[in-house]
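ok so dumb question maybe but i'm new to this and my supervisor (M.) told me to 'just get the structure for Aminotransferase class V-fold PLP-dependent enzyme' and walked off. so i did the thing. is this what she meant?? sequence i used:
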Amino acid sequence: MLTTANHQLTTQKHLFSFPEGIHYLNCATRAPFSRAVEQAGHELLTRQANPFGLRPDDFFSDAIRVRTLFSQLINNRNDESLDPDRIAVVPSVSYGMAVVALNLSRKPGIQAGQRIVLLGDEFPSDVYAWGRVCSELGLTITTVRMPDNFPKGPTWNERLLEAIDADTALVIVPPVHWMYGIRFDLEAIGQRAREVGAWFVIDGTQAIGALPFDLAKIQPDAVVCAGYKWLMGPYSLGLAYYGPAFDEGIPLEEGWMNRLDSNQFHRLMDYQPEYRPKAYRYNVGEHSHFLQMPMLEVSLTQLIDWQPDRIQAYTQTLMADAWPILEKLGCQLEPENGSVGRSHHLVGVWLPAHSDPMTVQQALQAKNVSVSARARVLRIAPHVYNTGEDVDALVDVLTAVLK
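this is what came out, is it supposed to look like this??
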């Protein structure tokens, strides 16, 4: 687990290449590259033009460092040491969830009639994964809908805990809802899942990197995280933690790199039935990613320096004066309420009933303010590269449009 630094973060805009007049409050859609990540990409592209001198160990070394950094970020430890062997390189959340679906039949006590518990309005990759496995195993899906009234977080968390019972086989929950920014008490949910013998799987894409995450306290069975949002890395590269429940499991691919001694290229024809330990079997094929992996290493190193709790504090302070103004315009948002309230890096703003979300988003875009419209909610996702000027631009447009 990361140690909180004594000093507060100030704006890190100087570390990014945003043109003047661009107000990017949309990290939940895709993170920008920092100058350091951008520079790493340029240097690696040049290096790839001449692969002379590439060694077998070079196919593995970058990924080892990235898995170690991610382990540090989420407090993935085996006793007192980091445990990067529990981290797999995946191309997407759907890939990581497919590993869970493929191995669900191996779960002790799994039987027809049990249920998979999901949240309402969840991201499609966390929903589509279960259709086939439900048909094959005779399972059903229980969807816990968002409450109608504010505050929504406490009631939603309560309903979720109530839905997890002795008939539950699997629970899939994010730390923060991808549309609404409402938090879920992962420690309480994890405890409840263990009490009833259910697997607990987390999609950390919209939180890990910007919100503190302690694997040792939460104790999930799996965590899947895309790399291009709050990990601030390249697209089509993600990371997944697979706990002991997945040891000796079935991989999606039978990749040669996932086998013992696969760095001994002169012996690759001596076919090896044994996998490397723990989650290594779940790595996607060609997981070296010679261009992208070092870029993700740079972004993870930067996040560990910034620290997620300081990112939360920065975004909280940055947006504090804006929320009362938007509420006076008729907007609604979830109040701060600890582990069951709103997050600060991703906030859903419910627009007034008379407004059209797409019209509002287009008005913002015309003034170079980037946010996302999801259903009737405006999703605002600031980061440390944002300044008061970005917030003022957002408020000015919404004041003009919503009045």
